[in-house]
Please model this.
Amino acid sequence: MRTLEKLFAEKLLKIKAIKLQPANPFTWASGWKSPFYCDNRKTLSYPSLRNFVKIEIMHDAKYLLPDNYETVKATEILAKEGFVVMPYMYPDLNVARDLQNAGAACVMPLASPIGSNNGLSTKAFIQILIDEIDLPIIVDAGIGKPSQACEAMEMGAAAVMANTAIATAGNVPAMAEAFKKAIEAGRSAYLTGMGRVLARGGSASDPLTGFLR
Model:
């Protein structure tokens, strides 16, 4: 079965709403440069895409933290109206359960504040959502390095959203490629099965007897 994030990407690519220019990045209104651009005029012209909605509700202008309470209410309203709702939220298990019950198609917890590049500051809480919520967990906001994106995928995240880390890099195309490889590596590691971790002590990886014969 195709995942939600893959299905959405396929739809955008099919109608050519996504434009990629790694060698000549687009300049956004904020001044940031990005290797990709989504033409919302095209997405609004296709009924099959108009029902995908990402919710970001924030009252805080300094840290841009999501209002989880209002997000749950908006998710319930939009889901009942037939939208595929993708809510951005602060990672909280109870809120994630409420979003699932409200009809969310996925859960998009922040790793750290939007645009901060501070990485997986909420790692432990995101892991709880991955373990307990039966929806795709898409890590959204704050990922600053390819290694952090890899780590999120190793945890079992369905996908990672990254913009600022790429848009503000010294070499945008090279950074985009680095993120691509890191995400693929992290996903492969998760599917393969990560090795055990010892809380204390060590364990010899070579035999302690018979190797001097």
In short: DSSP finds nine helices and nine strands in the chain.
